[in-house]
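FW: tagging you since you asked about this chain on Friday. Here's the raw sequence from the shared folder, copied in full. Didn't touch anything.
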Amino acid sequence: MNMQEQRTTVADTNGVRRLPDTARIQYAHFRVLDIERSLGFYKDLLGLVESGSNGNTLMLAAEGSDEPLVKLTEDRNAVPRQHQAPGLFHLALLYPDRKSLAAAFKHLYVNQWPFQGFADHGVSEALYLADAEGNGIELYVDRPKVEWPYKHGELQMVTETLDLDDLLSKLDPLNGINRSNSRDLSIGHIHLQISNLQRTEAFYHGALGFDVVQRNYPGALFMSAGGYHHHIGANVWNSRGAAPAADGSAGLMEFGIRTGNAQVTQELSAQFRETEFWLEGVNEEFTLRDPDALRIHIS
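HL: got it, structure written out here
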């Protein structure tokens, strides 16, 4: 693979800034009404562990890691987020293999946690549910990249029926529940509901530098760095033309993007500093507000 194919520079041959292959979603930060109720889901059912706190904010990380994947800030006066308001569609937690995902499903099922759906997306196998406060959650495992479906050079993510029996066949029937754990769990992507696809593409692709992976899924857009199927999903299915959520709304407060490249982070900081999207920060890490007023921390 040559240097052009690695795409570790900040601009491609068309002059569009591109994020390096190391870029990924780092964490999601939620404002919750009842932190103990949320901990019952993220700790007891998904197996995340406490990795620190800051005031009334609690950090939760994968087992064996101290880097938070989820941050929870309790606010008993939080305003319920309107269904159509821009914000989180779902946070997608990526499991390292099918057996780990099957164990997560079985642990949730045995504990009678409701699922909202199951899907085979061609690139991945996914379980859909919501956390204790109604925030959308996807639990998934990737298929090998050589199996991802392409047509005319464009990725073709689909929504087909998941073969749940085949997934569960990865468990040892003699090993009880195969209790879920969060070791090697990461955030694979974050899917947002937004008000306008064109503005969102201009921000996340044109300015921030994610590659557009798929545009032909009705009402949705998928973007990534490094050839992944998507790090950012966006749709207008519930939120087309909607105004930003009210200040103090429950739900997603902020999410983090780690570039993995200090030079890129500094150049992005310089690029955004004098724009309407800038909120605060320094060259090494800073916070932006996207066209729907969703907060993004870049580090």
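FW: The longest strand covers residues 24-32.
HL: agreed, and The chain has a mean pLDDT of 92.
FW: great, closing this out.
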